[in-house]
Amino acid sequence: MAKYPNSDAELTSDKEPYYMALFGSLIANLHKNSFVAAWNFTRNNDLLISVNWIDINFRSYIINCDTGVLRNVHEALTVVLSDQRIFRSVGNINKLIYLDEPNYYHEVLGRAKNLNEIVFDKDRIQLHSRLYILCISFIFLHEAAHLINGHAPYTFAHGAKKFVEGELNNLTPLDMQTLEMDADCCAFMWLLHMLLLPSSKTMLPEFVSKESDIILITQFISEFLFSCYFIKRHKDLNTTKQAPHPNAATRNKFCLDTGERYCEIHRRDLLNIYKKMRQEAIKFRNFAVERNIFSSEDVIRDNEWILSKEAENYQSEILSNWDLWIPRLRNFADKGLAPAST
Ligand SMILES: [Zn+2]
What we know:
By secondary structure, this protein is mainly α. The protein has 11 helices and 5 strands. The chain has one domain.
């Protein structure tokens, strides 16, 4: 058995080149030559990853991803994967980790007090480290989508001085939520597309041998990040509509629906297996809910609400609004945008 490394090991300055290289490889095929990506990592009480994109007019766009996000993903994943029911056949763990106090940091997960007691065997460690990188890849791709799809360039052209994740960026909440929906859906689709390529094999845990495993892994990333990690839950319609992001369960639904559309259009042979895997991925969420890892009542309420008529109307409003955004973004987007919602 091998001791599980502390998340601090993933967040030291000597890892900075690794995160830069990861971001570079993720976006390599997604942007045109008109963009030059430059990088800097600064340390200001905390690690801050800033990616400067310099376009032909020498405007630079900065996106930030701080240590807190990475650490929380790393540790939340440790807690979730300490449950052998999740990816049951992969490796072994010495104990199930519970949290004394769920949600005490970042409203999601604090540093679990007994993380240093956990022991994963080497297969479980590999599962954790590969899933961690895929979660980070999703987050990087989401941020990249704000640039590649023209969200940030559009707001700059309309007077915004900076584009900040989690803020309204001079837009109405509906408009910002629409762009967040686009960033999530593209990130999910790009990740699924990339992982289905044979060249991505080294990014996946070694147990993966079939395309159905790849689909399940990708759906797990969305379920984990939105059902377990990201925090914005539905409370009431007005609060949900005023936030910069849609509620977490809606974001998860949008991502998983996008994967289904991707299969319908590009990989019809995988469509049925994709639908079947969605039921499997929900089980992962349910295991986490059962253990009360992430404020279970909120997760349950959020996921129940998205099935209501009220939520359906709210989601349709975002999707219809996307149709209005396609012509606005066309001159700022680096790639073709997703088709209209109807
Ligand atoms: Zn965003």
